């Protein structure tokens, strides 16, 4: 079940958000790639916990993992589509007006550090401990969580977000030059918003790309809550119910 799940009924009014990690932790996830799935699960569980505390609701969540930054560097982060509401235990839909993504920053920071400690051996934890301590000390407000403002019609938003979640590490349109020895590509510098160029050898470029090839059978897009496989039938029924309620209202 993909973004079409949201398109069936506008009352779901999904919100998109990005969960990032501290720059110093990127190499930890690169070296220990088995942490990537727990990272996705942790982001989804954080949202599910908020909904549970807010009104014992089960939301619909679609999460996509990107391991790349604008410079094709290794920068794992989770993109999400979250329904603005959820099902009660009695199977009724309840809409939420607001999800305080910014207020979840400290919780997200704590969760990420716990994920790393939980899935590494004692020896591995000792090696990365300085990075964990720095990631905690250098982010007093927590790890960055970004929720862009929704603009335009919901179907257009979902089409854009759906394409964005599935996009590759780099598109052909970003490769400016190639002479057999060097590759030049363009990127947007997030610090000043300006377009810049970077030139690397062919070997360096291949290494950059290989880092973003998912491990065998690894799913970069996952479904949680109402959109998990176990809840699919309940989700479909709720969508039909919500549509009827709106039509009758």
How do the helices and strands line up, and which of them pair or pack?
Elements: H1 4-7, E1 15-19, H2 26-31, H3 36-55, E2 60-68, E3 74-82, E4 85-87, E5 93-95, H4 105-119, H5 122-137, E6 145-146, H6 154-166, E7 175-178, E8 182-188, E9 195-201, H7 202-210, E10 221-225, H8 232-248
Antiparallel strand pairs: 1-3, 1-6, 2-3, 2-10, 4-5, 7-8, 8-9
Helix pairs in contact: 3-4
Q: Could you please describe the fold and organization of this structure?
A:
There is one protein chain. The chain has 249 residues and is an alpha+beta fold. The protein has two domains: 4-169 and 216-248, no CATH class; 170-211. Helix content is 40%, strand content 22%. It has a five-stranded antiparallel beta sheet with strand order 6-1-3-2-10, sandwiched between helices. Strands 7-8-9 form a three-stranded antiparallel beta sheet. A two-stranded antiparallel sheet has the order 4-5. Strand 8 (182-188) and strand 9 form a beta hairpin. Helix 3 packs across helix 4 (105-119). The protein starts with a helix and ends with a helix.
């Amino acid at each position: 079940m993909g973004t079409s799940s949201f398109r069936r009924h506008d009352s779901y009014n999904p919100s998109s958000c990005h969960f990032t990690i501290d720059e110093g932790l990127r190499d930890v996830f690169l070296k220990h790639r088995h942490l990537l799935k727990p990272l996705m699960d942790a982001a989804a569980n954080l949202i599910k916990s908020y909904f549970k505390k807010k009104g014992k609701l089960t939301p619909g969540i679609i999460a996509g993992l990107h391991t790349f930054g604008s410079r094709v560097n290794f920068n794992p982060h989770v993109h999400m589509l979250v329904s603005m509401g959820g099902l009660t235990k009695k199977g009724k839909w309840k809409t939420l007006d607001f999800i305080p993504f910014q207020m979840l920053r400290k919780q997200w920071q704590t969760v990420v550090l716990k994920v790393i400690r939980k899935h590494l051996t004692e020896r591995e934890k000792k090696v990365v401990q300085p990075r964990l301590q720095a990631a905690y000390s250098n982010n007093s407000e927590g790890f960055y969580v970004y929720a862009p403002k929704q603009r335009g019609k919901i179907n257009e938003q979902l089409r854009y977000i759906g394409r964005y979640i599935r996009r590759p590490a780099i598109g052909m349109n970003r490769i400016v030059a190639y002479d057999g020895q060097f590759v030049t590509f363009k990127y947007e510098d997030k610090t000043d918003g300006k377009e810049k160029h970077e030139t690397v050898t062919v070997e360096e470029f291949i290494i950059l790309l290989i880092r973003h090839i998912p491990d065998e059978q690894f799913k970069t897009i996952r479904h949680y809550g109402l959109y998990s496989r176990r809840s699919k039938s309940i989700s479909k029924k709720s969508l039909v119910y919500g549509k009827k309620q709106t039509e009758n209202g």
